[in-house]
Specification:
The structure holds two protein chains of two kinds.
Chain A lengths: L8 H27 L3 H26 L8 H16 L4 H23 L4 H20 L10 E2 L16 H24 L1 H11 L1 H6 L4 H27 L1 E2 L1 H4 L2 H14 L6 H20 L4 H16 L3 H17 L1
Antiparallel strand pairs in A: 1-2
Helix pairs in contact in A: 2-6, 2-9, 2-11, 2-12, 3-4, 3-9, 4-9, 6-7, 6-9, 7-9, 11-12, 12-13
Chain B lengths: L1 H31 L6 H19 L7 H24 L3 H23 L15 E4 L2 E4 H23 L1 H11 L1 H6 L4 H23 L10 H15 L4 H21 L5 H15 L9
Antiparallel strand pairs in B: 1-2
The chains are: A mainly alpha, B mainly alpha.
Amino acid sequence: MNVNGLPQGSSVWGMVRQYLPWVLFLGFFALYPIVFDSPSDHTLGIKMMWFAIAATGWNMLGGFAGQISLGHATFFGVGAYAVALADEYEWNPWLAMILGMGVAAIIAVIIGWPVFRLKGHYFTIATIGTGEIAFLLVRNSEFLGGTEGFLMRSDEGFLNFYWGGRQKWEFYYLGFVLLLLAVVSTVMISKSRMGYYLQAIRNNQEAASSLGVPIAKYKQLAFIYSAVFVSIAGSYFAQQLQFAGPDEAFSLDTSIRITIIAVIGGVLSKWGPMIGAIVFLFLSEWTNIRFGGNGFDLVIFGFIVMVMAAFEPNGLIGLGNRFAHLLEKAKS
Amino acid sequence: MSDLIQTFVNGLMLGSVLALVAVGLTVIYGVVDIVNFAHGEFVMAGMYATFVASSQFGFDPLLAMPVSAAVVGLIGVLSFFTFVRPAMRGTLLSQIFVTFGLMIFMRGVAQTLFGSNFETIQGAWLSSQRITIGDIVMPGPQLAAAVGSLVCTGAIGWFIYRTTTGKALQATSQDPDAALMMGINPNKMFGLAWLIGGASTGVAAALVANYQPVHPNVGLAFGLTAFVIVALGGFGSIGGAFLAAFAVGMLENFSAFYGDSAYKQVWIFGLFILVMLFRPQGLLGRA
């Protein structure tokens, strides 16, 4: 039944549903540093940015292509160490970040060759394996700072990719631009031939292959894309903290964190990683204040991930969609 | 020469413990078709159960073994009936994430309850025992862990291959729907697999707690090694896991003997990826 009196009342609703997320998310991220106006809020905002960039990158492979990787810390580490080495040898951090993206892409090809011969659980376990190998190699390498990592001393300013103190909002907006880059490219890919191929691979690899989808090539492309964006997040992270160490950048915990963010938000939607980043940040800060950072955040996140997996695999976005569906039903 | 024999004996002892941990993982996978990413955390939970039984109630770790088995078995059954069973109807994503969530949850609970410190069990009877043959030393805790693990692994093998219930488990593993038509309740069998997988891991954990300190992240190394062993042996294959466990135990000890022990995990994962390249179904797995 049409209560609006419009010839196609549902199309207005459809337009709202299509553009509302853009307005909501971009509006929220754009206004955040203005509404929350203190350097410590800006630090949190920057954290939210690198969470969102990393999870968006991960999601191209993990969500859209359905290949669950628990080894993406490797690329995060590559990005972080690229700018840390640049600081050590006084190169430009921007060039280092771009170089890091290239190195991440090359490593993705090298790792992809063995791991994409595996499917499902085997693939996930193999990525844990490659992640741990990279972690141990870096941790034991003197050139890469061993267990200590690198402390950085960047000068402030755009060319140096670093802002401290009251200028942190500039850092935040830089992250916002990088995140936009990630989201827009994700949208473009998901609407292209590659997006549909990846969806076919996720739903049924054998069927996709028998219909002529070059699955090896497209999985590899998704892997390269996700590696590059996770490495950007790594560079951004290290520049902000002025530090890159193996436990923070290369460890399984980092891979797990990136994955949780995407899963909580919802891996089938481009907005999932972003809502995941907001919720993850809020919950981990809240538990830190309330319970003093003794692992209680892990209890909550683990519980949410279990519940999501069992009852709503598309995370908070899936819950939102259910709710919107109910609204729509109530309207008609 | 005696160094080599000692390294070999150490490899055997480590291999038997790893075998028991890995058999627990492979039973769950074989029957339920779910990889338990929280398996390392099952070991951690068993070690904490043993630690609490020994430090609070004065149990020797050997006597705490049934406690640990019961606790971890219960965790397995509970997680199956609460979250894993609904996730089984979902996609591969759900099936991976459900035990992945369990892993994070259990680590968080351990950190909240016990803090991040390393805890060591004091005054275990075994720690003062040792057997020496020539130059070869076998410390009591490690030897007991090896023997206990072998006995327990044998018992699981006997149960699955020689008893009626075990045959029902095998039938469920091959085809749950056909098993249902034969009057086997697949859900019961799934729960039983989680019970066996959990309890056997609990036994291994109590044995390991005799000589290794426990902390919330102790499961990581066990879990990773168990995945590698199970994947090497072929998912769901008990015999394969048993063989692969000894291969990994040897590799770990010999790589530490000839090289830098910091890299021993690199060798294990390197072996894993190599085998996956040339024999993706594992050593004894069905293609």
